[in-house]
Design a protein that fits this description.
The protein is α/β, with parallel strands linked by helices and 203 residues long. It has a domain of 141 residues: Ribonuclease H-like superfamily/Ribonuclease H (Nucleotidyltransferase, domain 5), CATH 3.30.420. The protein is 35% helix and 15% strand. The chain contains six helices and five strands, in the order ββαβααββααα. Strand 1 and strand 2 form a beta hairpin. Helix 2 crosses helix 3.
């Protein structure tokens, strides 16, 4: 069982994001405040869990957390402010939207910008070390996956239902064949350098 948090004497929010390395779609962040002494069997880093388990845990987290919030920063803004800044912005918005203001923020990873008037600590691989960060990783992942699966109905050629916008070879080949959609991040390199680039109009 993972420890609850870094400092159990404070109201502590765990934060994480999903979709940072994707070619398409938003980056999604979540903030979660869990009850003290909580027991959540199987709660761990979302990447280590099956989709079925993640969806099951999402329901528990959303019903039993003291507070939770999910926020997205969209493709056009990612292209303007870059993906790191977009990820941090999404986490800030998620914290701001919590029903309860935390006294401390625990953030997965090693990059974060101070949130006004609330101390924080970054934790490398924190989604596998603390329950509240693991919970945030699950909410960020499941909410973003659901959004991308919904987009799939409009853009089935990219198979976002399966790859969720990540740079699989299938996704890159679809970009080669069909071009970029309005949901692709234009600042990202969407074609594999090993693949032949489609002809430009000037050649």
């Amino acid at each position: 069982m993972l420890p609850f948090g870094i400092d159990e004497n404070r109201i502590e929010a765990g934060c994480d994001e999903a979709g940072r390395g994707c070619l398409a779609g938003p980056v999604c962040a979540a903030a979660v405040i869990l009850p003290k002494n909580v027991i959540i069997p199987g709660l761990n880093d979302s990447k280590k869990l099956s989709k079925t388990k993640r969806d099951e845990l999402r329901q528990w987290i959303e019903s039993e957390s003291i507070a939770w919030s999910v926020a997205m920063v969209w493709e056009k803004e990612i292209d303007v402010i870059n993906i790191l800044n977009a990820s941090i912005k999404a986490m800030h918005v998620a914290v701001a939207n919590l029903d309860i203001t935390p006294e401390f923020i625990a953030v997965d990873g090693n990059r974060f910008k101070p949130y006004p008037n609330i101390p924080h600590q970054t934790v490398i691989k924190g989604d596998g070390k603390y329950l509240h960060i693991a919970a945030a990783s699950i909410l960020a992942k499941t909410h973003r996956d659901a959004y991308m699966a919904n987009l799939h109905t409009e853009f089935p050629m990219y198979n976002w239902q399966q790859n969720k916008g990540y740079p699989t070879m299938e996704h890159r080949n679809a970009v080669m064949q069909f071009g970029l959609s309005k949901h692709h991040r234009k600042s990202f390199k969407t074609t594999d350098p090993q693949l032949k680039i489609w002809p430009s109009k000037n050649h």
